[in-house]
Specification:
The complex is a heterotrimer of chains A (154), B (375) and C (358). Chain A has 154 residues and is α/β, with parallel strands linked by helices. Helices cover 22% and strands 25% of the residues of chain A. In chain A, the strands form two sheets. Chain A has a five-stranded mixed sheet, with helices on one face. The radius of gyration of chain A is 17 Å and the shape is elongated. With 375 residues, chain B is of the alpha+beta class. Helix content of chain B is 48%, strand content 12%. Chain B contains 16 helices and eight strands. In chain B, the strands form three sheets. In chain B, strands 1-2-3 form a three-stranded antiparallel sheet. Chain B has a three-stranded antiparallel sheet with strand order 6-7-8. In chain B, α5 runs antiparallel to α15. Chain B starts with a helix and ends with a helix. Chain C has one domain. Helices cover 70% and strands 0% of the residues of chain C. In chain C, α4 packs antiparallel against α6 and α6 packs antiparallel against α7. Chain C starts with a helix and ends with a helix. Classes of the chains: A alpha/beta (154), B alpha+beta (375), C mainly alpha (358). Chains A and B meet through β3 and α3 of A and α9, β6, β7, β8 and α13 of B.
């Protein structure tokens, strides 16, 4: 099964990475922030994985931290991997390294996550708000975002 | 603009200037603002400014039940309404691990292919109109009316269908459905060659689109471009072939790949896809199997804890529905990977160095629907 | 063929008999001017409605049919609307040039129309250099467009005006050279002589191959002269708003708008006159009975029929073809049409010299 293959390959590289069981369909791995770029670069370049296509970039808001989820696929080998990265906290240190030079699709996607959730991406060529205006205060997709004018809570 | 800015300096230098292809513009297919940096007629930089139709659908999904979320999705990419609904229903069914009947699968596939035909018809009409052949718009809409009438009879609406629910369909298809679809296919088969020749046999159109706006295969994969835009560059990315859902595993159809990756290739892809869609419908329309319309689900659906991801192929490319659920009746976080978003990100890369008229042709063949991008 | 010269002489004599010399001439001028303005107005009325009805015919729909039977008064309603509109100029526009620009295009259109032969003897200005005068006058229209774009003080208008100026100047060459081809065949620049020289065959049959080539080039270049699709980049709605007349509204916009249709009429009339015989009925040299039959239809109807056919052709182009990009447009002219035209002239000269024409 392809899932077993990808699990073996990654365990060969870094035996102590954490695998979660959130998704029944895809293999999910949680990567520490410092190793994100090297991990993704290796996934892209290595002959066994050749993951050149990132098909989804999601930002999630948890009570203690913010998480960014990357869905990666290899167009030639057909392997799929889900990579999760967590920030340190929700306020000053929610910084993650950018991957926009490895996968060009991340440029707009990371701007969206910055705009709606407030995660700053270090090294992004042009990090500014995407949907909202430049002078908007706050990050609407966070769970604790209050806007008495625009949001109606029943 | 002041007179000094127009003067050509003695050394022969020219200055770059900004033009706003503003939110209201006949060629941007929705409210999209492009900040163009031009040098004469040549495009130096394209900076899209999104958010004019951002309705925060993803935030709304955190407070709605799964049945209500289906109604939100067909306002995202309103030209592939059925396919968007199908995506969410399939994701929820994946989470609940229920199996829908064959009848539902076949009807879902037929509706999806009809939607794809309707969307590509509108795209064809608008492409002609953007390049100057204004009559194509009228012809396209006349044939779309036939599809809209079919939808109206069965689903009750022409634009926001809401016919699929998690577990099946809302009600059974109309008795006239099969007959009308067959009539439409017979009629359209005679019309499509005519329409195709009107543009693709025209030397002016060929000169406007051939050799313009190249997108290489590596760039297409790196930028995440999917759909006919990527298939023209040679990327084999059809989800209907890679991970078949609904009834796609029991029909035969070809995945068409282009070689050159220019604007005319992207145009040709969609026309050939229309033929394949008709082929799929023909294979399915005669034997729609009997079965129940809705599988047994609770009134209020609660997905178990975990993450669920479903990929479908809309008319524009790969749509992904990512649900993170914590066991309640609304998802904890729901993210839509919209095809238009990735397709738009490549516009700056493709359009640099070409002229403003080429930019219009390139955008026409990438086929944006802005509500899909802004969600 | 009924000869209008007699009637016009009669009116002239009557005027001179009741008024002193200078006044009679002056009243004659005013009369001709008024008739031409009336033609201008009626043309605008008819052509705008015809464009919309023909567009509807190609697009499988009905077109305007509410105002008047078959929508006949649609243009009247449009004209009233345009007159009642607020003339929104910009405060930063150069007001003298901004107001002057529309008059240039009207002037060019009216002057060009003055040498057209509508029927035998029915011509305002029958000078020895007829067709040459017409080409010269139609070049005035370019100035109006450039002035309009510049004086509007608007980026888009300027872009549109520059494109239009480059396009019109280039295609005037092709128009002039294809007319020259026919002048070689007919031997005279005088319009009435060109028409009477076609009394045995129309020019398009007479100078067979080069005349047909010249006709095709003339149609293409004429469509480009009048800024119609497939050469309507200047008003490309999908790209730049409205081109050089973005900042105009009300009556001044009506001038630009109408002058486009009248220019189309003029190009069609010239094509009909020099290639298709003007008001001369279809004569096949030698067949007396046939010719006599054709003569029953008066010349004015022949003229209007031919012009109508050419206008229908130009409108057909508009609703079928996409538009060309500006560099493709100029490349077409300078690299393809111009050399073709020059070779065509040589060919026509050879044919005239050797007497190989009909």
């Amino acid at each position: 099964m392809k899932n077993e293959n990808i699990k073996e390959i990654i365990q060969n590289w870094a035996p102590d990475l954490e695998f979660t069981e959130d998704s029944k369909e895809y293999v999910t791995v949680v990567v520490p922030r410092e190793h994100l770029r090297d991990f993704l670069r290796k996934l892209k370049d290595d002959e066994q994985t050749k993951m050149d296509y990132m098909f989804c970039l999601t930002g999630v808001d948890y009570p203690k931290y913010l998480e960014v989820i990357y869905h990666l696929e290899s167009t030639t080998l057909g392997l799929v991997l889900v990579v999760k990265v967590r920030t340190e906290d929700r306020d000053e240190n929610c910084v993650i390294d950018t991957v926009s030079d490895i996968y060009r699709t991340a440029e707009l996607n990371e701007r969206e996550v910055f705009d709606l959730l407030g995660v700053r991406f270090e090294g992004h060529p042009d990090l500014r708000r995407l949907f909202l205006t430049e002078d908007w205060v706050g990050y609407p997709l966070r769970k604790d975002y209050v806007d008495p004018v625009n949001i109606v809570n029943r | 603009m002041r007179q000094e800015e127009l003067t050509i300096r003695p050394q022969g230098k020219t200055e770059e200037y900004f033009i706003n292809m503003g939110p209201q513009h006949p060629a941007t297919h929705g409210v999209l603002r492009l900040l163009l940096t031009l040098d004469g007629e040549i495009v130096k930089k394209v900076d899209p400014d999104l958010g004019y139709i951002h309705r925060s659908i993803e935030k709304m999904t955190e407070h709605d039940t799964y049945r209500q979320i289906v109604h939100l999705t067909d306002r995202m990419d309103y030209l592939s309404a059925h396919i968007n609904n199908e995506a969410v229903c399939l994701a929820v069914e994946k989470g609940l691990e229920i199996e829908v009947s064959d009848r539902v699968k076949v009807v879902r596939t037929i509706m999806a292919e009809l939607t794809r035909l309707s969307s590509h018809m509108l795209w064809w009409g608008v492409t002609g109109m953007d390049t100057g052949a204004l009559t194509t718009f009228m012809y396209a809409f006349r044939d779309r009316e036939m599809i809209n009438d079919i939808f109206e009879e069965t689903c009750g609406a022409r634009l926001t269908m809401n016919y699929f629910v998690p577990g099946g369909m809302m009600w059974d298809i109309h008795p006239n459905f099969q007959k009308r679809v067959k009539e439409f296919i017979a009629h359209f088969k005679t019309k499509l060659p005519e329409y195709d020749l009107l543009l693709s046999d025209n030397v002016i159109f060929r000169k406007r689109t051939e050799g313009i706006g190249f997108l290489t295969k590596e760039d297409a994969i790196s930028f995440g471009v999917t759909g006919p835009g990527a298939r023209a560059s040679g990327v084999s990315c059809d989800i209907r072939k890679k991970q078949p859902y609904s009834a796609y595993d029991r029909v035969q159809f070809k995945e068409i790949l282009g070689t050159v990756g220019d604007t005319f290739d992207r145009y040709r892809m969609r026309i050939l896809e229309m033929w394949e869609s008709m082929h799929i419908i023909e294979q399915l329309i005669d034997n729609i199997p009997e079965g129940e319309i809705q599988a047994k689900t609770n009134a209020v659906i609660k997905l178990p804890k975990g993450e669920f991801y479903q990929r479908v192929e809309t008319a524009r490319g790969e749509l992904g529905v990512h649900i993170i659920s914590d066991g309640k009746k609304s998802p904890y976080r729901m993210h839509f990977r919209s095809p238009g978003f990735a397709n738009l990100s490549v516009i700056d890369h493709v359009a640099r160095g070409w002229k403003v008229g080429d930019l219009v042709a390139i955008m026409a063949t990438f086929d944006f629907v802005i509500p899909d991008i802004d969600r | 063929m009924y000869d209008f010269t007699g009637m016009i002489q009669g009116i002239n004599n009557w005027l001179h008999s009741i008024l002193p010399d200078m006044a009679a001439t002056f009243v004659g001028w005013v009369l001709v001017g008024a008739i031409y303005l009336a033609i201008f107005a009626v043309l605008g009325l008819v052509l705008v409605l015809a464009e919309r009805k023909i567009a509807a015919f190609f697009q499988l729909r009905l077109g305007p049919n509410r105002i008047g039977p078959w929508g006949l008064f649609q243009t009247v309603a449009d004209a009233i609307k345009l007159l009642l509109k607020e003339p929104v100029g910009t405060t930063r526009a150069d007001s003298f040039l901004y107001n002057l620009a529309p008059y240039f295009v009207i002037l060019a259109a009216l002057l060009s129309m003055s040498v057209l032969p509508f029927a035998k003897g029915l011509q305002a200005f029958d000078i020895d250099i007829g067709i040459f005068f017409m080409i010269a006058m139609s070049s005035l229209g370019v100035m109006g467009i450039l002035l309009g774009g510049w004086a509007s003080n608007n980026k888009y208008a300027l872009l549109g005006a520059m494109r239009s100026g480059a396009q019109m100047i280039s295609y005037e060459l092709s128009v002039g050279l294809s007319i020259l081809t026919i002048v070689l065949l007919s031997g005279s620049l005088k319009m009435s002589e060109i028409v009477t020289a076609q009394s045995d065959y129309w020019n398009i049959f007479k100078g067979h191959i080069p005349a047909v080539i010249a006709f095709m080039i003339f149609t293409i270049a004429g469509t480009a002269e009048t800024n119609r699709t497939p050469f309507d980049l200047t008003e490309a709605e999908s790209e730049l708003g409205a081109g050089f007349h973005t900042e105009y509204s009300g009556l001044k916009f009506a001038f630009f708008f109408l002058s486009e249709f009248v220019n189309m009429f003029i190009i069609s009339a010239v094509a009909a006159t020099i290639f298709l015989g003007g008001w001369m009925p279809l004569h096949l040299g030698g067949l007396e009975g046939f010719n006599h039959l054709m003569d029953f239809i008066p010349g004015i109807f022949w003229f209007l029929g031919k012009v109508g056919f050419m206008i229908f052709l130009m409108m057909w182009f508009r609703w079928t073809f996409p538009r060309l990009r500006i560099d493709q447009l100029l490349k077409l002219e300078w690299k393809y049409l111009l050399p073709l035209n020059l070779m065509n002239i040589l060919l026509m000269a050879l044919i005239v010299l050797m007497g190989w024409h009909l």
